[in-house]
Task: structure prediction
Amino acid sequence: EVQLVESGGGLVQAGGSLRLSCAASGFTFDDYAMCWFRQAPGKEREGVSCISSGDGRTYYADSVKGRFTISSDNAKNTVYLQMNSLKPEDTAVYYCDADGIYHYWGQGTQVTVSS
Result:
């Protein structure tokens, strides 16, 4: 059974930090790019950051560049999103996504940034 389990969300004040984790199982982690998406109330889901499976190249949305860092630990089948200098507009449900031959989604974790 494929599972992507996110954790690490919560409530934080503006300027604070959170670290999201996504533990993957049930598929070959090394064969998939891993991404984080987010969806704020009333808005479409948007891509935040991705890390490729082969060379570890990373992608960041302009809105998070310089503040968020994606990383992965292939030995643990886990991808992380370190979020610093958080802003109220970062408030959203954050989803982990595995992108390869198939597409898998986690259940999401809520991040709320208060002003």
User: Anything to note?
Assistant: Residues 104 and 111 are 21 Å apart (CA to CA). The chain has a mean pLDDT of 96. The chain has no helices and eleven strands.
